[in-house]
Structure formats: C-alpha cells, structure tokens
Specification:
Layout: H1 10-34, H2 42-78, H3 91-114, H4 116-126, H5 141-158, H6 162-180, H7 188-191, H8 198-204, H9 209-212, H10 222-226, H11 248-254, H12 259-267
Length: 275
C-alpha cells in the first residue's frame, strides 16, 4: 500500500470522500428520525431544517468553488515551505497535518465566541432552536468567508500537499455532521474521551452563555481537555434567548444586530407585568 497521496488520482479520491459525506448526512437524518435523543416541536424542527438547508445551498453557490480552489491553490504554491514541508509525505505527516488543522479550527472557534466582531457572525450558527444534523451547515456567509482567509493562512504556515488539505477538510465535515446529530449512542461515554460527540456539542449549543462557551473542538477531544474548555452537561434549552431566525433573510440580518442592541430595544417596550 502506498504511503503517499497520488496527486493524479487525487480528485476522484476527494469526490468519493465528499460523496460519502453526503451519504453520511442522509444516514444521520434517518437515524435522527428513528432514534432521536431529544424531541423538539415539529414546527421548530421544520423551520430549522428548511432554513439550514436553504442557507447551505445559498452559501454553496457563493463559496464552494472559492473555498476549494483557494485552499487548493494556496496549498499547491506553498507546499514546499512551512512547518511540515521538509517531512517525507506519508502517514506520520498526514496525521500531524490533521492534528494541527484540528487545533487551528479549535482556535478559530474559540475566537468566534470571545471576540464580539466574530461572535456577531458565529451566533447565526447558535441561533438554531433545534439541534440536528442540518445545524452543522447553518453558518453566516461572512463567517465562512473569514474562515477561508484564516485557513489559507494556516495552509501557508503548515506547508503540505494540496490534496491532503482538501481531504482533511472533508473528514472534518464528517465530524461536523456527526456531532450535530440528534441521536442516541450507547458507546458515547467511551467515544467522548477521544472525539467530540453529540452530547458534548449539545452543551456547546446551550442557551446559557456560560455553557455554550465550552467544547470548541471539532474532531479531537484533547484540545478542550488541554485548554480547560471541556464541559459535560445536559443543557435545558438550545439556541439563543433573544436571537432567532426563521428564514434565510432573517438569518443573514441577524449578524448585524447584537444582543446588547436587542436588550436595549426590548427595554424600551412597556412591560405590563405587575411589580
């Protein structure tokens, strides 16, 4: 078995991986329907799925070619320089590249919660009142654009094969679908010691800020353990209290209204409750 990725056969390999990710997405939808971990109101589930898939299609029309081509071209140009450039292509280099990529996305995710200008875009992902596999494709277009720039910088720093970078991207997509799935897993306690599972990521989608500022990992569980951001807790509610979006236009606009502004607007509305 060859230790390296054949660049001539690379594209069919990536197409096969992406096709498997699409099949995995559908399989998780079926499992959610048959064995849901948590029951959400039917209308909430419907709004979530329709909005999330609509956003995904819109974002893809704008970003799929840009994202794939940008990462590929940057990796192709800078594969001869960077942290891993002098290593021989092989399993060890691939694993190191994957771990560094996963760590980089952990850092990006953490910053998305801590920096207000980034949170205004990332909160769109958290505004889903449901928690299901389609939540994994609910992102603001500006959030994705910024992430492309960040990933391109990372590719320059790391310096690895262009096809390997795209393969890692698709593998990460598998795990994004998985940890957003509303499913029950008997072996989840064992799995969560090593990888991010639905139970860990449900906490990350809690309504409470002190709960959803946790579990930033995408694939490996080690980063949250290492940096003290792991939280094992079952959230009472999912989504954001003040923020909601039931269609694509509302979801896009949500980024331009902060929680502070929303609280100020609500404070101006007379409260008829007896004191």
């Amino acid at each position: 078995m060859q230790d390296t990725i054949d660049t001539n056969a690379g594209m069919p390999y990536l197409v096969a991986l992406f096709s498997l990710a699409a099949v995995f997405f559908v399989l998780l939808l079926v499992l959610e329907k048959r064995h849901p971990y948590r029951t959400f109101p039917i209308q909430v589930q419907k709004n979530s799925f329709v909005t999330n898939t609509s956003v995904f299609l819109l974002n893809n029309l704008i970003l799929t070619i840009l994202k794939a081509s940008s990462l590929f071209l940057v990796a192709e140009k800078f594969s001869g320089s960077g942290l891993l450039a002098n290593m021989d292509d092989g399993i060890l280099k691939s694993l190191l590249a994957f771990a560094l990529f996963d760590l980089a996305i952990y850092g990006w995710h953490y910053a998305g919660h801590k920096l207000e200008w980034m949170w205004r875009f990332h909160k769109v992902h958290h505004s889903d009142k449901s928690f299901n596999v389609s939540t994994g494709i609910r992102f603001h277009v500006f959030d994705l654009l910024l992430e492309i720039i960040y990933k391109c910088v990372f590719v320059v720093v790391i310096g690895v094969n262009a096809y390997l970078i795209l393969a890692i991207e698709i593998v990460e997509l598998f795990f994004i679908f998985f940890h957003h799935a509303n499913i029950r897993l008997q072996i989840e306690p064992q799995l969560s010691a090593w990888i991010i599972t639905p139970s860990l990521h449900r906490t990350h989608h809690s309504t409470l800020r002190n709960e959803h500022d946790s579990n930033y990992g995408i694939v490996l569980a080690v980063w949250d353990k290492l940096f003290g951001t792991r939280l094992e807790h079952e959230p009472e509610q999912i989504g954001l209290n003040l923020m909601a979006a039931e269609n694509v236009v509302q979801l896009f606009s949500l980024a331009f209204i902060t929680e502070r502004q929303m609280k100020k607007i609500l404070s101006l509305i007379p409260n008829n409750k007896k004191k």
